[in-house]
């Protein structure tokens, strides 16, 4: 069984992002970048399925410029078998990304497509669902547990107020939640070996896709600062302050 894992290069989650002075975008100049955390969970799950003998090959794919090779090499160091870069300098929105991944999936013919439930840069959380719709495949989102048997995937997914268990026939699209697993630590020797592995590069133009952005980004701004909280000694002081401000209590 072949697994296709889609990953995205984002600002490291430990970094405090900065806005460009003109408010046009987030400033990533000189900022540490890495694999989207949810996508790293997807990579880990694919590797675990291979270690169990369920998967035979794992292919990682990302979209972007040549600098995106760093996250593909990270995936290779984790244990992915092959890596593909769809090269473009354009900024693609979720539907366009889903169309590109559809083209790659039709080329690779995987039995399972894994990706993170969302990217931490735009928090759109749409690509997996759109990809499943374009491929006309069953989908299971926000997966916190995956088991595969008899050409079916049983997925436990988190919903408001609890969990839901789904059974989907393969091939299928599954999006990973953080609680799906704990991604393994990548050792330096594996990173060094990954640098020598080939990465297939596909020019976006060669996929013959019609990609248009339907949403225009007007401005990026930092959230309005909220006033600091007030510490109270006991519940009586709390009630007193609530009565004194905004008429919260009678």
Automatic annotation (TrEMBL):
All copies of domain Electron transfer flavoprotein alpha/beta-subunit N-terminal, residue ranges: 23-211
InterPro entries assigned to the protein according to its UniProt record, in alphabetical order: ET-Flavoprotein_bsu_CS, ETF_a/b_N, ETF_b, ETF_beta_N, Rossmann-like_a/b/a_fold
Pfam family, one: ETF
Superkingdom: Bacteria
Family statement drawn from the similarity comment of this UniProt entry: Belongs to the ETF beta-subunit/FixA family.
Matching SMART domains: ETF
Organism: Methylophilus aquaticus
Keyword NAD found: no
Name of protein: Electron transfer flavoprotein subunit beta
Alphabetic keyword roster: Electron transport, Transport
Record flagged with keyword Electron transport: yes
């Amino acid at each position: 069984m072949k697994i296709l894992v889609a990953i995205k290069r984002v600002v490291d989650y430990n970094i405090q992002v900065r806005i460009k002075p003109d408010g046009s975008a987030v400033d990533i100049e000189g900022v540490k970048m890495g694999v989207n955390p949810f996508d790293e969970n997807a990579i880990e799950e694919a590797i675990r399925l291979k270690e169990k003998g369920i998967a035979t090959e794992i292919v990682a794919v990302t979209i972007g410029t040549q600098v995106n090779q760093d996250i593909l090499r990270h995936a290779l160091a984790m244990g992915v078998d092959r890596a593909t870069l769809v090269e473009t300098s354009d900024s693609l929105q979720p539907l366009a990304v889903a169309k590109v991944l559809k083209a790659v999936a039709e080329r690779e013919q995987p039995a399972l497509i894994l990706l993170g439930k969302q990217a931490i840069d735009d928090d759109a959380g749409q690509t997996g669902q759109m990809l499943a719709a374009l491929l006309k495949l069953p989908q299971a989102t926000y997966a916190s547990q995956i088991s595969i048997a008899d050409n079916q995937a049983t997925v436990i997914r988190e919903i408001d107020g609890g969990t839901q268990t789904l059974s989907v026939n393969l091939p299928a699209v599954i999006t990973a939640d953080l609680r799906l697993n704990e991604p393994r630590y990548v050792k330096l020797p594996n990173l060094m070996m990954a640098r020598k592995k080939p990465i297939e590069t596909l020019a976006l133009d060669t996929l013959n896709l019609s990609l248009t952005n339907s949403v225009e980004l007007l401005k990026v701004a930092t959230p309005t600062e909220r006033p600091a909280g007030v510490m109270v000694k006991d519940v009586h002081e709390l009630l007193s302050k609530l009565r004194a401000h905004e008429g919260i209590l009678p």
